[in-house]
Amino acid sequence: MVRWRLKAARRIALALTLALTLAMALATSMLAPASAMGLRDAEIEELMRDYTQPLMVAAGLSPDVVGLTLINDRNLNAFVAMGQNIFINTGLILEAEQPNMVIGVMAHEIGHITGGHLARNRDAMSRTKGPAVLATILGFGSMLAGNAEAGIALITGGQQVSQRMYLTHSRAQEASADVTALQLLEATGQSPNGIVDMMDNMAAQEILNEVYQDPYARSHPVSRSRFNAYLEAASKSPYADTPDSDEMIFRHKMVQAKILGFTDDPEVTFRRYPNEDTKPAIYARAIAMHRQARLDESLALIDRLIADDPDNAYFYELKGQVYYESGRPHDGLAPYKKALSLKPDEPLLLIGLAMCQISTGTHGGEINHTAIGNLRTALRHDPQNGGAYRQLSKAYGQLQEVAYAEWALAEYYALSGRPAAKKHARKAMRGLPESSVEYLRARDILAAEF
Question: pLDDT by residue (tens digit) across 129-141?
Answer without folding.
Answer: 555 555 555 554 5
